Amino acid sequence: MTVTTALEDVDLTMREHQFIALVGASGSGKTTLLRLVAGLMRPTIGRVEVDGAPIAGPGPDRAMVFQQPGLYPWRTVAGNVRFALELSRMASGARAEEIVDGQLRLVGLAEFADHYPHQLSGGMQQRVALARALAVAPEMLLMDEPFGALDAISRRRLAGELLRIWEHEQRTVLFVTHSIDEALTLADRVALLRDGRIVDDVEVEIPRPRDPDMLQEDPRFLELRRWLWESL
To answer: What are the Cα distances from residue 73, in Å, to 92, 98, 111, 124, 155?
Structure first.
């Protein structure tokens, strides 16, 4: 039997409210690391902890947004967001409706509350998935290439939306992406993975708020992008 080592000698510490992007080629271990933090997998060696406590499985303190929105087609936009509250038993009745309305306003979809997923664009569907994840007020948001299936224009717009939402919500975020530009636009730190190891961990010392369009001309952005590309 062939054994594949997905991660080896990984040591990564996140601070509260920090946004960290995991960048690397396919097969570098990014999603495996994210799934370990989510509690969807368990390490064969080592420990994954939150606030000093080992992660034994999924928990309400961590919410995950996948590349595909995974919305229920028979539920409306509001119904899909409300489902997270039903599943967690966090809120019901008028309080649940208040939370759903607040999250849809946050992602700019309040006027689409009664629409169904097939009536939305891919970018709008992903915003519904983000609203659903945020509805349960997780301490940590785990995002696995959430914009990977979108066209370049939608991807850029959603990156700007995520920046705005993160600045409003101030959640701790672990974000997987193949895009160095996307990582530098969004993150406080970029951890670069290669062959299951973190080969670089770079602070993105670019002031916030950030404008994705203006960043392309910032010399600090260009220098970091060059450094990370060379490290790949």
So the answer is: 22, 22, 18, 14, 23
Q: What is the CATH number of domain 1-61+138-232?
A: 3.40.50.300
Q: In the chain, which segments carry CATH 3.40.50.300?
A: 1-61+138-232
Rounded CA separation 74/163 (Å):
30
Per-residue burial over 155-185, b = 16 or more CB atoms within 10 Å of its CB, e = otherwise: bbebbebbbebbeeeebbbbbbbebbbbbbb
pTM of the model: 0.91
Burial class (CB in 10 A: 0-12, 13-18, 19+), 56: exposed
Nearest to 91 by CA among 66, 60, 58, 57: 60
CA–CA distance from 99 to each of 81, 150, 203 (Å)?
9, 27, 34
Structure tokens that stand for 25 in this block = 């080629």
pLDDT (tens digit, 9 = 90+) per residue, 181-219? 999 999 999 999 999 999 999 999 999 888 888 888 899
**Cβ partners under 8 Å of residue 232, min gap 6:** 24, 25, 180, 192, 194
Q: Which amino acid is at 192?
A: L
- Return the higher-pLDDT residue of 176 and 44: 176
Query: Using CA atoms, how far apart are residues 226 and 228, in angstroms rounded to an integer?
Result: 6
